[in-house]
Amino acid sequence: MPSLKALRSRIKSVKNTRQITKTMKMVAAAKVRRARTAVENARPYAAHLANILGNIAVGADNSAPLLLTGREQVKTVALVVCGSDRGLCGGLNSNLLKAATQWIETRKATGQTIKVVAVGRKIEAGMKSAYPELLQKSFTDMGRNVEFAHAQTIAQDMLEQFNTGDLDEVHLMSSQMLSMLTQQPIVHQLIPFAVAAKAEGEIVSAPEFEPSEDVVLEHLLPLNLNMQVFTALLESSASEQAARMTAMDAATRNAGEMIKKLSVQYNRSRQAAITKELIEIISGAEAL
């Protein structure tokens, strides 16, 4: 049985840990509100931009930009996985790595060449462990303060490789914040532009271009690319803070329960020590 001194030391240590996790929960709660607001502001713009390009793509012909039509043969595919730089956020990164592993194995089974781009230190470490030969590049320190320039850096790098023929397709995987308690990995095609399926009976009007179709697409396609990556980074940031808040809340409750158990054990040990001393005193008095 541990000594009273050891129990007091452990109780003090757990109390300090509970204070840390409680503080981290409060910080994450403040950050997740800002991150969630940023995501909700970005979603309508990204969705409307994708809808405009979808209407344009319906009537596109062979003369349309390659970024819109894509290549006939898809041999080399890149997967951009957006995670977090820091841990203590529950199973957020492990779920992303698990989903990425399933996606990679499915694509490898079709004979395609896979390249992985990691966004976040935790994803980088996981990919180095699981697929070191597939990891092409890493981007870190982007989740703390998400900026549009970060998205432009990633998107421009992927676009250059697509234009040079090094990549035929690029897919983007990130965590979507469904609620404060639920974050789900999602993946969608980033390059070339993927046209969303239209509902049955939905009428799509033919767009009119001013000054010309080429000029409009030349501006909208890279903008959509940047916006999709930016939205994914915002979603990942919000999911990270929500997962951290949930994890720290659970850790705080667990620490409280542990303190209660240790306190009971400490009180029992202390009572046993007092009882033992009383017995020794009484026995000594009776001996006299």
TrEMBL record:
<dbReference type="GO" id="GO:0046933">
    <property type="term" value="F:proton-transporting ATP synthase activity, rotational mechanism"/>
</dbReference>
<keyword id="KW-0997">Cell inner membrane</keyword>
<comment type="similarity">
    <text>Belongs to the ATPase gamma chain family.</text>
</comment>
<dbReference type="GO" id="GO:0045259">
    <property type="term" value="C:proton-transporting ATP synthase complex"/>
</dbReference>
<keyword id="KW-0375">Hydrogen ion transport</keyword>
<dbReference type="Pfam" id="PF00231">
    <property type="entry name" value="ATP-synt"/>
</dbReference>
<keyword id="KW-0472">Membrane</keyword>
<dbReference type="GO" id="GO:0005524">
    <property type="term" value="F:ATP binding"/>
</dbReference>
<keyword id="KW-0066">ATP synthesis</keyword>
<dbReference type="GO" id="GO:0005886">
    <property type="term" value="C:plasma membrane"/>
</dbReference>
<keyword id="KW-0813">Transport</keyword>
<comment type="subunit">
    <text>F-type ATPases have 2 components, CF(1) - the catalytic core - and CF(0) - the membrane proton channel. CF(1) has five subunits: alpha(3), beta(3), gamma(1), delta(1), epsilon(1). CF(0) has three main subunits: a, b and c.</text>
</comment>
<dbReference type="InterPro" id="IPR023632">
    <property type="entry name" value="ATP_synth_F1_gsu_CS"/>
</dbReference>
<keyword id="KW-1003">Cell membrane</keyword>
<dbReference type="GO" id="GO:0042777">
    <property type="term" value="P:proton motive force-driven plasma membrane ATP synthesis"/>
</dbReference>
<keyword id="KW-0139">CF(1)</keyword>
<comment type="function">
    <text>Produces ATP from ADP in the presence of a proton gradient across the membrane. The gamma chain is believed to be important in regulating ATPase activity and the flow of protons through the CF(0) complex.</text>
</comment>
<dbReference type="InterPro" id="IPR000131">
    <property type="entry name" value="ATP_synth_F1_gsu"/>
</dbReference>
<protein>
    <recommendedName>
        <fullName>ATP synthase gamma chain</fullName>
    </recommendedName>
</protein>
<dbReference type="GO" id="GO:0009579">
    <property type="term" value="C:thylakoid"/>
</dbReference>
<keyword id="KW-0406">Ion transport</keyword>
<dbReference type="InterPro" id="IPR035968">
    <property type="entry name" value="ATP_synth_F1_ATPase_gsu"/>
</dbReference>
